[in-house]
Design goal:
This protein has two domains: about 120 residues, 2-Layer Sandwich (Nucleotidyltransferase, domain 5), CATH 3.30.420.40; about 150 residues, Hexokinase, domain 1. It starts with a strand and ends with a helix. The protein is globular, with a radius of gyration of 20 Å. The chain is of the alpha/beta class and about 325 residues long. It has a six-stranded mixed β-sheet, with helices on both faces. It has a five-stranded mixed β-sheet with strand order 3-2-1-4-8, with helices on both faces. The chain contains 14 helices and 14 strands.
Length: about 325
């Protein structure tokens, strides 16, 4: 039996999967991306596992958190360069293709069940109009889905790197502070894990709010964004709550920008680990208020369906579908 290889590369973690063409999984493993100098070393570790021994791989799709140009791709938040032909030769895989990670997410939406989605706004869905997907994790990914022959053509973008546009005086001060550190400030700089920490530290200093000492220790010894989220949602820490509220509002504004730019009457889908872990916050008013706040276009925004993708491995599902499709082409 031949198998398909799917991989979803992120700046924090990489998921690898071996499955047959029917989706039956033989092996799946999660790796910390930053512990490997290259994707080749990570893939070698995966294929060296006992369950992968003697397996023939007919097709592979590698989803890359960064720009892809033909057979070449690079990971934005890691010093990884990938080449499909080199990977095929090195690992003796018949066909290897690279795609943007949110291109994979876009394809993975087709594999979702109704229970994999949470509705933030029902809107007035129009299946003849585009869809869009956006998701925050280590960075901010975006893709566009255009209806084509009873299916969807997925167009990857780097739209998360557009200029951040503050909507309040406090956000303007945040922009000025971050500009001093980095120069250009994109939504990708803020709507991500490190961006949540940036907002937390900014509000701590700007509003002179005392930190919870246990939270400070958790941030020093673990994932700062995860710690801030936990203390906001579970412990109702005032500073963490304000930081997460700001994060959700800025996220909503950019999701609205994307939806408006592509007329996403087919729906806009929120993916990525941050929204899944903080869905209660996204159900509150802040996200949708910012999403809808488009002045004369608010009536149009109210017609856009807005969904949260609850399936955390939607990108891996999309990569598997693309690998399966390539096997028959």
């Amino acid at each position: 039996m031949t198998y398909l290889l799917a991989a979803d590369i992120g700046g924090t973690k990489t998921l690898c999967q071996l499955a047959d063409e029917h989706g039956r999984i033989r092996l799946q493993q999660r790796f910390p991306s930053q512990e490997f100098e290259s994707f080749e070393l990570l893939l070698n570790a995966f294929l060296s596992l006992p369950e992968a021994q003697g397996v023939h791989i007919s097709s592979a799709c590698i989803a890359v958190a960064g720009p892809v140009d033909g057979d070449s791709g690079r990971v934005t938040k890691l010093p990884w360069q990938l080449n499909a032909r080199t990977l095929a030769e090195q690992f003796q895989i018949e066909k290897v293709q690279l795609c943007n990670d949110f291109e994979a997410v876009g394809h993975g939406i087709a594999a979702l069940e109704p229970g994999d989605l949470d509705v933030l706004q029902q809107g007035e869905p129009n299946p003849a109009m585009p869809r869009a997907v956006i998701g925050a994790g280590t960075g901010l990914g975006q893709a566009i889905l255009v209806p084509e022959n009873d299916s969807w053509r997925v167009l990857p973008t780097e739209g998360g790197h557009v200029d951040f546009a503050p909507q309040t005086s406090t956000q303007q001060l945040l922009l000025e502070q971050v500009q001093k550190r980095f120069g250009h400030v994109s939504y990708d700089r803020l709507v991500c894990g490190s961006g949540l920490e940036t907002m937390y530290l900014f509000l701590r200093d700007y509003k002179q709010i005392d930190e919870n000492p246990q939270l400070r220790l958790a941030m020093l010894h673990g994932d700062p964004a995860a710690a801030i989220s936990e203390y906001a949602v579970v412990h109702h820490d005032a500073l963490s709550n304000q930081a997460l509220d700001m994060f959700v509002s800025i996220y909503g504004a950019q999701a609205g920008n994307l939806a408006l730019s592509v007329m996403a009457r087919g729906g806009i889908y929120l993916a990525g680990g941050i929204v899944g872990k903080n869905i209660a916050k996204f159900r509150e008013s802040g996200f949708m208020e910012a999403f809808l706040a488009k002045g004369r276009m608010q009536d149009l925004m109210e017609k856009m369906p807005v969904y949260v993708v609850l399936e955390p491995e939607v990108g891996l599902k999309g990569a598997h579908l693309l690998a399966r499709k390539a096997m028959y082409n």
